[in-house]
Amino acid sequence: MATLTTVTPKRFTLDDYHRLIELGFLTENDRVELIRGELMQMVAKGTPHSVCNTSLVYEVTILLQRRAIVRGQEPITLPPNSEPEPDLVIACNRCDRYLSGHPNPGDILLVADVADSTLKYDQEVKLAPYAESGISDYWIFNLVASCLEVYTQPYQDLQGNFGYASKRVFLPNTTIPLPGFPDLSLDLSRVFPNY
């Protein structure tokens, strides 16, 4: 009689992940990100996603004018085992521009993702590690519904799950203040494609 064997996926630490990159097992062409110890294949971006992301990075960079560092589709480090690559990050200024290491939760003012085919992934998979890491502001540019989902107030429930206590929705014809910069507002009509 055959016995059933349980298959357990291999979970990676940040050190494991960085070592795979150093050894050449993972390259920029692999398009993966580390989420809670798992290597997640990133989906190819369509034209609306690319246009929205390009506009977002452009508009935020102009608004901030060297008051913070704007990173587009670059890794952030969320100990102990996540290194996602959000579409936009606003991080505190550092003279080395994060050459010594990717921004970590204490450096981050805003994380944003542009979502069409990845909407559920951004809402259900990536949101929890951001909340667990204490990222105070997570934005999803929802291209399916043509709105911006703004998540704030990270929390942990009694079952140990992480999320955000507040979710607000903004339409493309509005402006919204940038987190950490109450004097600066982003005109969403300049970001959403076809608006």
How would you portray this structure in words?
This protein has helices at 14-22, 47-64, 119-132, and strands spanning 32-35, 38-41, 69-71, 88-91, 108-115, 137-142, 147-156, 162-170, 175-178, 181-187. It is an alpha+beta fold and 195 residues long. The chain has a single domain, classed as tt1808, chain A, CATH 3.90.1570.10. It has a six-stranded mixed beta sheet, with helices on both faces. A two-stranded antiparallel ribbon has the order 1-2. Strands 9-10 form a two-stranded antiparallel sheet.
How would you summarize the topology of this molecule?
Blueprint: H1 14-22, E1 32-35, E2 38-41, H2 47-64, E3 69-71, E4 88-91, E5 108-115, H3 119-132, E6 137-142, E7 147-156, E8 162-170, E9 175-178, E10 181-187
Parallel strand pairs: 5-6
Antiparallel strand pairs: 1-2, 3-4, 4-5, 6-7, 7-8, 9-10
List the main descriptive attributes of the protein structure presented here.
195 residues, tt1808, chain A, globular, single chain, alpha+beta, 30% strand
What is the strand tally?
Answer: 10
Number of domains: 1
**SSE pattern:** HEEHEEEHEEEEE
Number of helices: 3
Mind telling me the CATH class? Alpha Beta
Question: Which class of secondary structure composition applies to the elements?
Answer: alpha+beta
The third-level CATH topology is: tt1808, chain A
